[in-house]
Amino acid sequence: MTQVHVITKYNRSSHENYIEQYYRLRHDVFVGERGWRDLDSENGIERDAYDDSNAIYLLAIDDGRVVGGQRLYPTLLPHMMTDVFPSLASRGVPRAPDILEWTRYFVVRERRTGRTDCRLLAAMQEYCLAEGIRQVTAVVEMWWLPRWQQVGFKVRPLGLPTLIENEPCIAALIDVSQRSLDTVRQMAGLRGPSLSRVGDLSNQDRVPYVAA
Amino acid sequence: MIHFKIEMMERAVRGEKFSYADEAFAFIEELDRLTAPDAVMDAMQKSLSLFGFDNFIMTCLPGPREKFEQAVLMRKWPKGWFELYATEDYVRVDPVIHHCRNTVQPFEWKDAPIHENAGPRALEVMNRAVDYGMKEGFCLPVHGINGYEACLSMSGKALDISSRTKPALHLMSMYAFERIRTHVSRASQQPAKTLTSREREMLVWAAAGKSAADTGDIVGITERTVTAHIVSACQKLQATNKTQAVARALQYRIITI
After folding, report:
1. A209 falls in which pLDDT band (50, 70, 90)?
2. B92 CB contacts (<8 Å, ≥6 apart)?
3. Rounded to whole angstroms, what are the CA distances from B153 to B12, B28, B80, B94, B172?
4. Taking CA atoms, what residue in B is nearest to A161?
5. Cα dihedral value A175, A178, A184, A190, nearest 10
6. Shortest CA gap A144–chain B (Å)
7. A165-179, B26-40, B118-132, B237-251 — which one is most confidently predicted on average?
8. How far apart, in whole angstroms, are the C-alpha atoms of residue A79 and residue B254?
9. Using the beta-carbon criterion (under 8 Å), do B145 and A170 form an inter-chain contact?
10. How far is A106 from chain B (nearest CA, A)?
11. pLDDT tens across A99-109, in order?
């Protein structure tokens, strides 16, 4: 059965294989399918400046195979919205210890008709609720908005849609709430938690993300 | 267009600068505060009239066997047009509807390609719309989770669609759609009747092709009890028989196979 695994600096060493799969899939999806040439690399791995020890990965894994994933990153550190897309957030880039930036979300092609999508979305809410995260920020193509809204996410625009490589994109702020988690779970018929936190100690030792 | 110009002039007189971005953000915040469906509709009509729109339809894209009337979420169309559109079943040949299935980007009606299979009827829809005062239009396709497909299509006599206005229009129509969709689905929602784990289990076996007797043997209960669970699941799912109950349970993702 598919479960979403939390991978942080605390348990990364025992999950390198999954992270490696995730980087390769990111290359397949973002460069291969979506055509983001800027991210292209010769080794077929897509890795950027934010894949450091502050990154938190929530990866959907089924029988040892990564089938989808997403990354969370502290907004108090320089992050994608401040470094690359500040012009999209004309109303200002929200930065706080309890706001994370949400990036590199995808579901592998063969799982796009199933529940993996909702499972990942539920996992994001679940993780943030457990960690006291209040909101997440993201830069996405406009067609994401109705999908999020349909699963009960409360989404606020941080600016007007702007064309990036001919595709209208938007910077958005998304609330974390039990209600959103309940809605997405209900839509997909997910009962109980989606997250597996084997070896991830971030919950216990309460080191603030910004400490690194 | 006229409303828009007056409003711009009034603001200019007051020394304020009109900003599409401010307008869009204010509209989205206003939608958040409104609870009554009528108030949401009014706010939407008022704000989208800034771009010249006065006719609207919000609809799910009907499946091959689904009636158009049942797919519509909200409409404000010229008198007689809805009736004609439904009677003629124009939804099957409408180039705007057709294009919605193929794109996630908003588009102007004039940019919706006339597909070959639709024949002369596709042009007929567009021409008849003009007869009802709907020459130009703009449409936002919506592609959701689980194959949900819908659109917000609108028109007016003199539209203000340009690279300057489009980003705000795109954003505002998306929020307008979302707000109406939640209102409509809330109003029509049946009180949720959840299936018990046993009822779901029986449907899963039925989906796998097992008879009530087979299922009884596998699970270790009597055939009679299996049937009782299935009957109860049928009632909760408003299904007339086991086949329909299985189909609905799969459709609503209550069970998976």
Report:
1. very low
2. none
3. 31, 19, 17, 12, 13
4. B167
5. 150
6. 8
7. A165-179
8. 39
9. no
10. 14
11. 999 999 999 99
Residue B197: per-residue pLDDT: 82
Give the nearest partner residue to B174 out of A113, A145, A187, using CB atoms: A145
Query: Residue A7: phi, psi to the nearest 5?
Result: -125, 120
CATH of the domain at B73: 3.30.450.80
DSSP 8-state assignment for residue A166: T
**B163, B233: one domain:** no
Instruction: Report in angstroms the alpha-carbon separations of A164 from A82, A120, A144, A167, A201.
Output: 16, 25, 15, 5, 38
Q: What pLDDT, on a 0 to 100 scale, did the predictor assign at position A207?
A: 45
Task: Report pLDDT for B189.
Answer: 47
Give pTM, 2 decimals.
0.81
In a domain, B141, yes or no: yes
Number of Cβ atoms within 10 Å of the Cβ of A128: 26
Write down the domain spans for chain A. 3-205
What distance in Å separates the CA atoms of residue B101 and residue B141, rounded to the nearest whole number?
Answer: 8
Q: Is any Cβ of chain B less than 8 angstroms from the Cβ of A89?
A: no
Confidence of residue B191 (pLDDT cuts 50, 70, 90): very low
Report pLDDT for A188. Answer: 84
Q: For residue A14, what are its two tokens?
A: 């025992």
Span between the terminal Cα atoms of chain A, in Å = 34
Q: Does A92 touch chain B (CB under 8 A)?
A: no
| Three-class secondary structure of residue B201 per DSSP | helix
Beta-sheet strand order (sheet of B55-60): B72-76, B55-60, B149-156, B136-143, B107-108
Looking at chain A, how many residues does it have? 212
At B1 the pLDDT is 45
CB contact under 8 A, B253 and A162: no
Q: Rounded to whole angstroms, how far apart are CA atoms A51 and A80?
A: 11
Tell whether the model's pLDDT for residue B204 goes beyond 80: yes
Residues B204 and B171 both lie in one domain = no
- The pLDDT of residue B154 is 97
**Which class is A3-205 in CATH?**
alpha beta
Q: Decide: A103 and A80 in contact? Cβ < 8 Å.
A: yes
- Decide if A17 touches B, using CB distance below 8 A: no
Q: From residue A21, give the alpha-carbon distance in Å to each of A47, A68, A118, B209.
A: 11, 10, 21, 37
Interface test with A, best of B164, B171, B195, B256 (most A CBs within 10 A): B171
Q: Tell which residue, B206, B211, B103, has the closest CA to residue A166.
A: B103
Q: Which of B142, B170, B188 is the last residue of a domain?
A: B188
